[in-house]
């Protein structure tokens, strides 16, 4: 650090790959949420949203995203495997 300037190396800056890894971790976090134990007691189920008619609200969009991530678990697992193999070979 010289005169208040911060010098970042190439490893410390956030690039496209780091952003993709973050999104992958976020998708993994959404995919493992259990509807019965976590979402249903808080009223965050698709069935409840269909009954109330609030599918287009922010809550409805978030619940839809959670269910989409849960539905796509197999492709998510394959993508995780690809990322792990890539990281093993690239370092």
UniProtKB/TrEMBL annotation:
Per the record, its GO cellular-component terms are: COPII-coated ER to Golgi transport vesicle; endoplasmic reticulum membrane; Golgi membrane
Give the top-rank taxon of the lineage listed in the UniProt record for this protein.
Eukaryota
Record's subcellular location: Membrane
Q: One GO biological process from the UniProt record?
A: protein transport
User: Taking the first listed entry, what is the main subcellular location of this protein, grouped into a coarse class?
Assistant: membrane
State the InterPro entries in the record.
Answer: Yos1
The question of whether Transmembrane is a record keyword is answered with yes
Q: Which residues cross the membrane?
A: 14-33, 71-89
Keyword terms: Membrane, Protein transport, Transmembrane, Transmembrane helix, Transport
Family under the similarity heading: Belongs to the YOS1 family.
> What PANTHER family does its record include?
IMMEDIATE EARLY RESPONSE 3-INTERACTING PROTEIN 1
Instruction: Please report the name of this protein according to its UniProt entry.
Output: Protein transport protein yos1-like
């Amino acid at each position: 650090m010289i005169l208040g300037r911060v010098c970042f190396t190439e490893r410390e800056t956030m690039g496209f790959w780091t952003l993709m890894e973050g999104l992958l971790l976020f998708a993994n976090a959404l995919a493992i949420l259990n509807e019965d134990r976590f979402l249903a007691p808080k009223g965050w189920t698709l069935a409840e949203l269909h009954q109330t008619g609030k599918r287009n609200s922010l809550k409805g969009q978030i619940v839809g995203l959670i269910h989409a991530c849960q539905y796509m678990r197999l492709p998510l697992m394959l993508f995780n495997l690809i990322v792990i193999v890539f990281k093993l070979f690239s370092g």
